[in-house]
Request: fold
Amino acid sequence: MKTILIATDFSKASRNASIYGLHLAKAINAKVILFSAYQIPSPATGLGMSISRYDVMEQTRQELMDEVEKITYINMPEIKTICDEGVAGDAIINMANEKKADFIITGMKGSGKSFKKIFGSTATSLAKNSKIPVIIIPEDAKFKNPDTLIFASDNIIDADKNALEQLITITKLFKSKLYVVKVIKNKNEEWFEVSDTPQELRKVFEIVDSSIEYPVDTDVTHALNKFIKKHDADILVMMPHKHDWLEHLFIKSETKDMIFHSQIPLLVLPEGQLKERSGSETLVSSENSTAY
Reply:
């Protein structure tokens, strides 16, 4: 049985992601873990006051219980609540690894270019570091059966084999139509793309109902959003390429860009082989946690 770990900081965006995750779990008959990370606040300067680790943990535990009451509907999957201390992104990944989760779901607050300036946000941290597929839910996105998936890639030929296998598995799981999309700058590039795509790679996509498309546009984000609307896509699938530290800081990441523009859920597939999952569990939940 599959497992979905839903990360929450009890915000409006997180609640919407939790509701989406419950509907998804019901659709694929998966178990649900509602997880929240918390950090111990520093003592107030000059007051000599501090909050105990136990108090923060119990507070988060109670808030998780309250959240379950707010998002649970008739015939929805049972929810297991867990919390753990740590920085949100790291704690979520550790718990997802330990619980052998098949998907991590997290919310995204708002949309627009200003959010690209949020360095180290939980959504982008998970997209960059998780070895488990991450589904990022925009604040206003509603659950819809994922009948149409769009896999956007800047280099289809060199796409990671492990990630492609996951993509095919997910496409079969949802019984979806899959569009494999590479945006090109002019129509002349299409001939080279078609001729360079190995037959072996084409056979990978023939396993499912799929089509390889080459929309023409100098702006990748604009082209993908236009393609999404045209085909009424339900989920956008991307695979972030690994850059070194300086590249992460100074080079525009198309995956990060789409996280803050897409109005449909974004499924980020990890590159490389899945690492052995490990982590630590706390069967408690708490309340006053840091926002994601």
Summary: The CA atoms of residues 21 and 216 lie 34 Å apart. Strands lie at 3-7, 31-38, 79-85, 103-108, 134-138, 148-152, 177-181, 210-213, 235-238, 266-268. DSSP finds ten helices and ten strands in the chain.
